[in-house]
Each structure stands twice: as C-alpha cells, then as structure tokens.
Design brief:
heterotrimer; A mainly alpha; B alpha/beta; C mainly alpha; A: mainly alpha; 12 helices; B: alpha/beta; eight-stranded mixed sheet; 14 helices; 12 strands
Chain lengths: 303, 363, 361
C-alpha cells in the first residue's frame, strides 16, 4: 500500500504517458495499414487546408459577371460560381465552420457518452436503468427531423450552439458501446484491486477504466464528428439554418437554390463542396475503421 | 433402409478378412506463415472389419489431423502431401484421396462418419433436431420422411433420449451431454461402415461419459461397428479399443493389441503415458510425468522426435529416426531401445497402474 | 442462456391458456411491447412539452398574431389557437396534456395553420403512404442486395471481387445520403441525361388516379425511382459489410464443419446453416437503419420533390405551420418506434434462442 498522494501522482503521469504511448503505437501501426494511413493523411490535409489555408488563399468576393461558371483552369482550379467568383477559395474557406461545429459536437457527445456510459455500466442498478431508458428514448427519436423542428423555434446561427445541440443528440449509440465496454471491464482484476484498496468510485472510473477505453473514446469522437457534419450540412442545405458565412453546406444550399444543379455548366459549383464533404467524411471513417483494426487485432484478416 | 432390430446391413455381407479402411504412408502438412507444420508423418493403418482402434496421443500429436484427413475436412492451409487412403465395401475399392467433391460429399457420413468432440456447437442453432436429421438424410438421397423419422426415433431411443421431445427441440434446449448423444445418434443414421470418434468423452460430466462409453461399447460388441477412437485419455482406449496406436509428433510410435500395449509397452512414450496416470487405489506412489513438452512440428528435433524427453535416449536416437519394428505378436514399436524398455518393465511391472485404469474406466 | 424450463411442461397439466399467458408474460415479446408502449408515451409527452415550452412558443406566437392582425379579443384568440392545436388553452398545463393525449388517441392531431380547415391527420393520411412506400422499398431492396453481396464477399474473401466490393461499400456508407441524391440528379439527370428528372418529380404524374392498374404501379415506381435508388445506394454498403463479417464468423463455427462432415450439399449449408445465422445480427441493425432512413427521407424527398411526409415536415418548418409540424414529427417518430418493434419481433421469430423466457443478450 503506497502513500495516496504518491499513488495519485503516479497515476497522473501514468495517464499522460499512457496516452502518449498509445499515440506512438497507433502511428506506428497505422503506417503498416496503408488505407488507414491515407485516411489519416487526408484528414490532416483537409483540416490543415481549412484552418491554415484561409491565411494564404484569400476569399474571392468580387463579382465578375463575365466569368460565370467557368470550367476548371490553373487560375481557378474548381472553376467559378454564378457570380464569377473563384470556387477553390470558397472551398478553402468553407471547411473551417463545418469542422469546428463537428469538433464541438464530438467533444460534447464523447464527454456525455463516456461519463454516463461508464457510470451506467459500472454502477448498475437503478442508475443504469434510468440512464439506459433515457438513452433508448433519445436513440429512437429520429435525429434529423428533430433538428429540423428545433430549427423552427430556435435560430441556429451560432456555430458553437449548433455544435452543442448536435452533440447533445448524438451520444446514445456511443454511450451504449462505452457502457458495454465498462460492463466487461468491471469484472476485471485491476478493478477488483482498486475496490479492495477502497479507492472510490470516481477514482475507479477515471483512473482505471477510462484509460482502458481510450480506443472507444477515440472512435466515438471521430464517429460523432461525421454525424455532426451530416446533420449540420443537411440543415444548412435545407435553408433551416440562417448561416451566411462561407461554408460548404452554404455552397450546396446556394447551388440548390439557384438551380445550379440543373445546369450543365455549373457542374463544378455543386460538385466542389459535395466532393469536399464526401472526401472529409470518407477520410474520417476510413481513419476510424483502421483505428478499429489497430486497436482490435482480432478484426484483422489473415491472422 | 429401415431395420427393426438394430442390425446393420453391411456386417453380414463382409467376410472376416475384410479391411474397410487402410492408410498407407499418409503425410499431412499445414502451411502457415512461420513455415510448414509436419502434422502427420507417414502413418500406416489397417482397420479390419468390426475392429476398434484407438489413436492415443497428446495434443499436437497429429491424431485429430489424421481423422480429418480420412474424411478430407482439413482446413485450406493443410494438404495431404503423400500417401494413400483406401476404402473398401462390397468387394469394391475406392481411393479416397482421388474422389471428386461430389463423391466425397456422398462418402462423408454415409460411408465414414467423423463425430467431433464437444458437440456443444455441432448443431445449427436455428433448426430443430428433426430438420437436421432430415437434412442429412436428404443430402444423401434418402427422401422417405416416414422412414427417416422412424429411424431417427429408434436411434434416439438407443442413445437413451426421449425421442419425440428431442426431435422437436432446438439445440440450445438440450444440455451438452444430450447434444453429444444426439450427435452420436445422427452419426448412425446412414449406417456408415466406419465411425471415427474424436474425443468422444472429453468436456462431458462423469455420468454422461459413462453413458456414452456404454453406448459405444454396445456398438462395438453387439453391432460390431468398425471404429477409430481419437483420444488423449487412456481410459477410453482401455475400455473400447481392440488395438491401440500411440502417436507422437505426427507418427505412430507404437501399435498393438490393447492388453499387450498396456501390460507390455515397448516404446518409452507409451510407457510414460501409462505411468503418468495416477492410481486411485494405489498408495503414495511417485507421480510420473513425461518431462519436457511436445516438439515444434515445424522444426522437429533430429532423429527420433521423442529423444529430448526420453530417459532411454542415446546418440543413435539423436541421429536416426526409428521406424516401426515388430516387438511381439501383432505388436510394433518405433524405438531403437525397445529391449531396454522390456527390461525396465521386468524390474518394475505396471500391474497396479493398469488395474487402476481398467477399474477406473468401469466405475 | 435459455433453460429447458419451458419444455418441462408435462403433457397433461394446467390449461393451455394459463401456460400460454405465463409464457407471454415472461417473454421477450411482451417486454418489447411494454418498452415500445413506454417509448411512444415518452415521445408524445416530449413533443407536447416541446411545442409549449420552447422559446418562441408557437401557441403564444399565434395568439399574438391573431391579436395583432385580426383584432380579436384575447379569449377569442385563445379559442382559435386552441382549436388549431386541439388543446384548451384555458386549462392548466397538466390538463392540457391529458386532453392532448385524449385527442391523440382519437386521432385528432389538430388543424393546419396555413391550410385552414385541413386536418393534420388528413395531411398525414395523404402523404405518409408515399414515404412508407419509397422508404420501405428502398430498405427491402438494399437489405436483399446487401445480404447477397455480403455473403458473396465472405465466401470469396481476399479475392479481387471482395476488395473492390469492400471499397465500394465503405465509400457508399460514408457519403451522406442527400449528397448521393444530389449526385444522382447532377450526373444521371443533367450531365449524362440518363434520367428524365423533370418528369420524375412528385410522387405520381398529374392526373393519375390511384388504383391497382399496371399503369399506375409503373408510374409510381417511375417517380419513386430516384429516391429509392438513393436509399438503396446509401444503405447497401452497411448491409454488405455487416453481412460479410457475420458470414465470416459463421463460417468458422463448429456446426458448419460438422455440416460438411455430414455430407450436406453446399447450397443447403450456405442458405440454412451459414446464411440464416449470419443474417441474424443484421436484424439488430435494422432498427437503427430505419431511424436513419426516416431521417434521411426528410432531405431526400426535398431534393427530389417527392411528396412524402418528410417533405411535408420541411415545408411546415419553413412556413412555421406548427400543428402540422407537431403532428408529422410525432408520426415520423412513431413510425420509427413501430419499425423497431417489428424488427425485434422478426428477430425473435428468426432466432429460436430468444423465443422463450430467458435473458436478452
């Protein structure tokens, strides 16, 4: 039995070095899995482009009536839109908000899912029943229609708020996964040991169980992000969210509203944001699948 | 096909010298990333009509692989690289290894049924037992539902189960022991000439073990089934087998009639196996175990594969692998020093251990 | 897992009805029914309070609107609003809630603000079948194709076909469904001119009378083709990958090896032994999928101008037609809840291990 301060100090560094250790292992293993690595690089590229790109590539806001719907060229890699503005610069500027909202949603969603999922799985009894009932109900309510209805009452033009709202609706699936993991970890030896040492419930949850669920946490985070991107772009596309900033979803909405979809020449105006979003989602999901393979060797084929 | 008293069609037709199954120089190799696993290395076996042979050995000795090879159910990474497996019936001979897939499918279960150990998961969870019986019959061209049903009920009665109830049950509704008995009944449905039973009593409770052993003994003594038992348990062999073949590292190291092998083993490995069984009736005798562990089948030791664990080993054992030589009437052993084993036994005979095994098996 | 308890019943014993009732009470089916009823109840309650308590309370707003524009007295305005929302605004909230529930049970969901005189339930009756038709068809077809391809991929694991299909499935399941819909319009309709999208708008051609003639059926499929294709494309990938992994797991099971040892035909093994067991996990996913698809229908119907309930929801949101919004949202949620319930029942019918009184996994 060691001094409790020393023990908790050791656990502090333990957690951090565990995280760093797992990051290093992940990177190493990822380089063996080509597809996952590509996904990882793509995510980095897109995120980098969206946050750093705007510093270098100014947004083209000048209307040039004679340059409407030009096809791609060196000057305009994605052509021009209905007002002659360069599409590429819009794409570069358009990712920021989308990813920001996604991250906010993912953070909230993961926090709720991990905290309550662990609590639920670990405590059992009526705590578990209550949390699971709430989870089941939230899970059953179809998310996008609910968001559409909420949009009628609440003006959703604050990005952070939008992110929080999305996050508050996407935790159920994640919570279930976390809970089942917590249930299985509950019976493990190191938890028994911690109990025997009388270390308290919150200690057990945060110092013992959570580090073993890092994999689930990371995977929930990335999946929340995809769900949030899906929801927000959908809302913007339907015009339910009055965001006027440059934003991939807004680009699609404008293309739709202006009927750009139905013209042959305006192909790039609609395809560019669609491709950007699709590529981002694809990369994140590929990354997540590879992370699953990395963390769960049983899923690897041929072994 | 329906018989009223459990008399089997083939037994009366064949003569005494009939050999339903023979294996000649069979080699099986698994290809895994690390290398080639020599699972079975040159096994010869002649199975005579109505005889039961036990293949005894530790895990990894190749006994199960051999069984799988006979019905050609090895995994894709395994290959039968050499040898001949011949099956005979009604005066005709068939080279099992050259059967086409369709013929092989007909061969399985109808001519030769391999019953796997641990029937816990042997049945399709979504079908009733009756459906699975019918499946088996239909796949072999037997479409007479009434007759199949009659036979199934009869067989379930034979294995001491409530026929109607079990037939209508799903697998998960039956206990492990019941499932093992159903599997046994199923294996007899098409009246195969040869039965291969892999670990028939492992993972079962004592009472069920007893029931199964009694049933198998009945099959052997009253119905004169031809059977191969694969087991690591000497008690099974003692009760049921006419002949025993001990296997080590993919090869048969000793083969002979049961009593002969038990009283007068001539291979150090067999000796070790028999000695390793503690006696219930005995006093504070030393427990013998064979030191060391089974060899790596990818990288076998030179010479005799048993030499690292053998107390009789000499330099010759390290260099040359012995082949089976006759050491008694119908008794063969693959050892350079079988005479030494003989002498050792004259000094310290095995009576007490053997009696304990024979009595322990009958409790 | 399940015990042999339920079979122990002797041939002669308590009356079959008693036994039956006891089994039902303990059974999976009953518990699921109970859970569904509770969820329906919870959802209707949430929606009620959503409408009444959110900022920008639509009831109050409407009352104000009436006061300002029509010069009604407060009581007259309240009465009108009450009629529209099918609640009595003079009562305390709790009683309004009870009234709301009572109305629901009678099928009274209120009246539309924008189309005065049109009952919400009439609107739902008119548009819901189209959504059910398109979503249902899409779901079933994607399920069948997904299962078949997943099975194929597992059997031909590591082959070129497997790799190609896996990549395709991964891509398809990652891209948002409305983007797929837009791409269909852009590429099939505009760029390659393969589909006459202008004529494919709406759920049926103008002037068509709903009947069971071949011409009508052909017509509705013509109009529903693009939405259905979108549903299929977005869902099939998930089914494929799930089926592939569960088939791989099933192929490694003992009973498959034993089935081969029994000399069963490969076709029989694939369908009854591998197929049936591998498809079981897919049914548990079914519930989640229905939720997604109903949610997606909101967007997809807007894209293709398909007159289903999703489109009605969006229109009502954009036009702030609160009673319609409330009613439609409730119906959409209920549709998902019931679909989940049926999926659970189907699953318990298919997997005999669940039938009897025993634990759920």
């Amino acid at each position: 039995m060691s001094n409790s301060t020393a023990a908790s100090a050791a656990n502090q560094t333990g957690l951090l070095s565990q995280i760093w250790g797992s990051i290093r292992t992940t990177l190493r293993l990822m380089s063996y899995n080509r597809v996952g690595f590509i996904g990882f690089i793509m995510v980095l590229l897109i995120v980098g482009l969206s946050f750093i790109g705007p510093e270098f590539i100014p947004l083209d806001t000048k209307t040039k009536v004679d340059q409407i719907y030009l096809p791609p060229s060196w000057e305009h890699p994605f052509g021009t839109d209905h007002q002659g503005r360069d599409i590429f610069s819009q794409i570069v500027h358009g990712g920021k908000d989308v990813i920001y909202v996604g991250v906010v949603a993912a953070v909230l969603s993961t926090l709720i899912a991990v905290t309550f999922g662990t609590l639920s799985g670990f405590s059992g009894g009526w705590v578990d029943t209550v949390i699971m009932t709430i989870t089941d109900i939230v899970l059953t309510i179809p998310r996008f229609p609910l968001l559409a209805v909420l949009a009628a009452f609440v003006t959703l033009n604050n990005l952070a708020f939008l992110g929080l709202l999305l996050g508050a609706l996407s935790w159920p699936t994640l919570l279930r996964a976390v809970r089942s993991q917590a249930l299985s970890l509950k019976e493990r030896d190191f938890v028994e040991a911690a109990r025997a040492l009388d270390l308290g419930t919150s200690h057990i949850i945060f110092r013992e169980i959570v580090p073993n669920m890092m994999t689930y946490i990371v995977i929930s985070f990335t999946l929340s992000m995809t769900a949030a991107v899906y929801a927000q772009v959908g809302l913007v596309f339907l015009g339910l969210v009055p965001i006027s900033a440059s934003n991939w979803g807004v680009m699609i909405n404008l293309a739709w509203v202006r009927g750009a979809i139905f013209y042959k020449d305006s192909l790039w105006y609609i395809m560019a944001p669609v491709l950007a979003i699709a590529l981002f989602q694809l990369s994140v999901i590929t990354l997540t699948r590879s992370l699953e393979l990395v963390f769960n060797p049983r899923l690897r084929s041929g072994e | 096909m329906a018989n009223d008293s459990m008399e089997w069609s083939f037994q009366t037709a064949q003569g005494k010298n009939h050999t339903p199954l023979s294996l000649e120089n069979v080699h099986v190799v698994y290809n895994i990333r690390r290398g080639e696993v020599q699972a079975v290395r040159g096994v010869d076996l002649e199975l005579h009509a109505g005889e039961s042979v036990a293949l005894i050995g530790e895990s990894g000795s190749g006994k199960t692989t051999l069984g799988l090879a006979i019905v050609r159910l090895l995994v894709k990474s395994a290959q039968i690289t050499q040898g001949k497996i011949t099956y005979r019936r009604d005066g005709r001979e068939v080279d099992v290894l050259s059967l086409k897939p369709k013929e092989m499918r007909e061969f399985r279960w109808k001519e030769c049924a391999m019953v796997f150990q641990s029937a816990l998961n042997a049945f399709n969870p979504v079908l009733r037992i009756w459906d699975q019986m019918l499946d088996t019959a239909r796949s072999h061209g037997w479409n007479d539902r009434q007759a199949v049903r009659q036979k199934s009920l009869e067989l379930l009665r034979f294995v001491q189960l409530d026929p109607e109830r079990v037939l209508n049950s799903y697998p998960h509704e039956l206990s492990g022991g019941m499932r093992q008995r159903v599997l046994l009944a199923l294996s007899l449905l098409l009246e195969p000439q040869v039965l291969i039973l892999d670990e028939p009593t492992t993972a079962l409770d004592i009472l069920t073990q007893r029931t199964i052993l009694d049933l198998l003994r009945q099959l052997k003594e009253e119905q004169h089934f031809t059977m191969i038992f694969i087991s690591h348990d000497l008690a099974v062999a003692a009760e049921l087998a006419d002949r025993i073949a001990t296997m080590y590292a993919g090869a048969v190291v000793e083969m002979g009639p049961t009593e002969e092998l038990f009283y007068n083993p001539r291979h150090p490995y067999t000796l070790g196996l028999i000695r390793a069984v503690p006696t219930v009736a005995g006093g504070f005798e030393e427990l013998f175990s064979i030191p060391g562990s089974p060899p790596d089948l990818i990288d076998l030791p030179s010479g005799c594969p048993f030499h690292p664990r053998c107390s009789f080993a000499t330099s010759r054992c390290r260099e040359e692998e012995p082949s089976l030589t006759q050491v008694g009437p119908d008794h063969y052993a693959a050892c350079w020093h079988w005479h030494d084993v003989e002498k050792e036994l004259e000094r310290t005979p095995l009576h007490r251990g053997v009696h304990a095994i024979q009595q322990g098996g009958a409790s | 897992m399940a015990t042999v308890e339920a079979i122990r019943s002797p041939a002669a014993g308590p009356s079959p009805w008693r036994k039956w009732a006891a089994t039902i009470a303990r059974s999976y089916l009953f518990r699921k029914l109970l859970k569904t009823a509770f969820t329906v109840f919870a959802v209707t309650t949430i929606i009620f309070f959503l409408i009444r308590l959110l900022p920008g309370n639509p009831v109050e707003q409407y009352v104000n609107f009436l006061l300002v524009n029509y010069g009604l007295t407060y009581h007259e305005a309240l009465d009108q609003a009450a009629a529209l929302f099918s609640i009595d605004l003079n009562q305390p909230l709790a009683l309004q809630y009870v009234q709301y529930l009572g109305n629901l049970l009678r099928g009274d969901l209120g009246t539309s603000i924008l189309s005065p005189g049109t009952e919400v339930s009439a609107i739902i009756k008119r548009f819901l079948p189209w959504t059910l038709f398109s979503v249902g068809t899409g779901l079933i077809i994607s399920f069948i194709i997904g299962m078949a391809l997943g099975l194929l991929m597992a059997y031909r694991r590591e082959s070129l076909l497997d790799h190609v299909l896996t990549i395709l499935a991964s891509i398809l399941s990652s891209v948002p469904d409305y983007l797929v819909g837009i791409m269909l319009i852009v590429w099939l309709g505009v760029q390659w001119k393969l589909a006459p999208i202008a004529q494919m708008r709406g759920s049926m051609s103008p002037g068509m009378q709903p009947n069971l003639s071949f011409a009508f059926i052909k017509d509705i499929f013509f109009h529903a083709a693009l939405p259905i294709t979108t549903y299929i494309l977005t869902r099939v990938g998930t089914w494929m990958l799930s089926m592939k992994s569960s088939t791989i797991a099933a192929l490694e099971e003992d009973y498959v090896t034993v089935a081969r040892a029994r000399g069963l035909k490969d076709s029989r093994i694939t369908t009854a032994y591998v197929g049936r067991n591998a498809s079981l996990p897919l049914f548990t996913q079914f519930a989640i999928t229905v939720g997604f698809i109903m949610g997606g229908s909101v967007l997809i119907e807007s894209i293709f101008q398909y007159q289903g309930i999703g489109r009605v929801l969006i229109d009502s949101v954009q036009q702030r037609d609160y009673p319609v919004m409330q009613g439609v949202f409730l119906i959409i949620t209920l549709a998902v809840v019931f679909a989940n319930f049926f999926a659970d029942i189907l699953y318990s019918w298919l997997d005999p291990r669940i039938k009897l009184g025993g634990q759920e996994e």
